[in-house]
Specification:
The complex is a heterodimer of chains A (about 210) and B (about 180).
Chain A lengths: L6 H4 L21 H14 L5 H11 L5 H13 L4 H44 L3 H32 L2 H16 L4 H24 L1
Helix pairs in contact in A: 2-5, 4-5, 7-8
Chain B lengths: L5 H15 L4 H15 L5 H13 L7 H37 L6 H29 L3 H16 L4 H13 L4
Helix pairs in contact in B: 1-2, 1-4, 2-5
Classes of the chains: A mainly alpha (about 210), B mainly alpha (about 180).
């Protein structure tokens, strides 16, 4: 895809790449309302993370993207700053329907859960001190931290398997700086990001040579 | 700036934070905690842990913990301001970068940068887990619950919602 005209117009250009063994890869690009509703639905289904539901809806259910296109789009959103899935909604929507599509998907993803969250905030502000609610939330908090630890372990597994010492030290360094010393995020990342990019660059060159 | 208008403080805080939040919402939790609890005293440690739990339990992207922080600071306008400040700037950035990078020739650097960010984002998420554990796991039973959930979720593919509900039930029963 080039960058200058509306992404929606180029969508058909990608079809020939896929070969004949993938029939009906793309459905026609959805309307703005359909985009909004689809993202609202995957957002409301996504307890504890929207990514799984987003992939299912976009690739399997609506066939708005092939699996490869989805992976590329998500990879891009993963290395950009900010909430991945929110970035994904904007990039994805705009690829199908231009900037208006991006806004429709973004709004669909965020508006319904934001309203729910605001209602919950009101309830919490009023009843947060009720003893039973505090106990329930305390139990949920413990479980939520456990889930986060599990995600960290799952993501760490490939790094541990490769036993890449420099990478592990970088990971441990960020963990210590932020988690133990509580240094400000910006200061840590301003140093860590260039360092990590440099290290990765050098290691890849070594492998290549 | 923060003492005068709380809405502006929310917008500038989360707008800036989102631009540095590599690795998504979970990785930004330590910074949110530092700003909301330690720097601005918008919430207590306990309120922050509760907000995290509510955000996990509710549908939608987990980044919406900022909605709860915003509400605690400035009511409904605060909730909306914090949410938009956290989500919109990076979404627009993603939009422009995606248009730039879709030139076929520039395929090498995105992969390299992404690989370089992986250990950093895992380190950030681990820091989130540590900070949250320090405010929630004050008793042996709580620590055990966290460890058990971490173990179960690591080795099985059980729906996370069930584990959260189980935690809520144990809390309701007064065990943790």
């Amino acid at each position: 895809m080039s960058t200058d005209s509306a992404p929606a117009a180029q969508e058909p250009d990608q079809e020939p790449d896929q070969g004949p063994d993938h029939p009906a890869i793309h459905a026609p690009p959805p309307g703005l309302l359909a985009l909004f509703l689809a993202f609202a639905r995957m957002s409301l289904a996504g307890f504890g993370g929207v990514l799984v539901f987003a992939r299912h809806a976009i690739v399997d259910r609506h066939r708005w993207m092939t699996a490869d296109e989805f992976n590329e789009t998500f990879a891009l959103c993963h290395f950009l700053p900010g909430p991945n899935i929110v970035n994904l909604s904007m990039v994805f929507g705009s690829r199908l329907r231009g900037i208006a599509g991006g806004v429709a998907a973004f709004t669909g993803l965020l508006l319904p859960p934001t309203l729910i969250m605001t209602v919950l905030a009101i309830i919490y502000a009023r009843f947060g001190d009720v003893e039973v609610l505090r106990r329930i939330l305390a139990g949920i908090s413990c479980a939520a931290v456990g889930l986060l630890i599990a995600v960290v372990f799952r993501m760490m597994t490939p790094l541990l398997k490769r036993m890449d010492v420099v990478v592990l030290i970088l990971m441990l360094g960020v963990f210590t700086a932020i988690g133990v010393f509580r240094w400000p995020l910006q200061a840590v990342l301003v140093i860590a990001i260039p360092l990590s990019i440099a290290v990765t660059y050098v290691m890849r060159r070594k492998v290549a040579v | 700036m923060s003492s005068q208008n709380p809405i502006w403080a929310l917008i500038s805080t989360f707008g800036l934070m989102s631009l540095f939040a590599v690795g998504g919402a979970a990785a930004a939790v330590p910074e949110m905690h530092r700003i909301a609890v330690d720097v601005h005293h918008w919430m207590t440690d306990k309120q922050f842990a509760d907000a995290y739990a509510i955000a996990q339990l509710s549908p939608g992207p987990n980044v919406l913990i900022v909605t709860l922080i915003g509400y605690a600071v400035a009511g409904i306008p605060g909730a909306l301001a914090a949410t938009l400040a956290m989500c919109l700037p990076t979404a627009l950035l993603a939009y422009y970068v995606s248009r730039l990078l879709n030139r076929p020739s520039q395929s090498r650097w995105p992969a390299l940068i992404q690989a370089a960010l992986v250990p950093l984002s895992i380190g950030l998420m681990a820091a989130s887990a540590l900070i949250l554990a320090q405010s929630t796991d004050r008793t042996i039973a709580a620590l055990l619950l966290t460890a058990t959930v971490a173990l179960i979720a690591s080795v099985s593919r059980v729906n996370p919602l069930w584990l959260l509900l189980a935690g809520g039930l144990l809390g309701f029963a007064g065990i943790v």
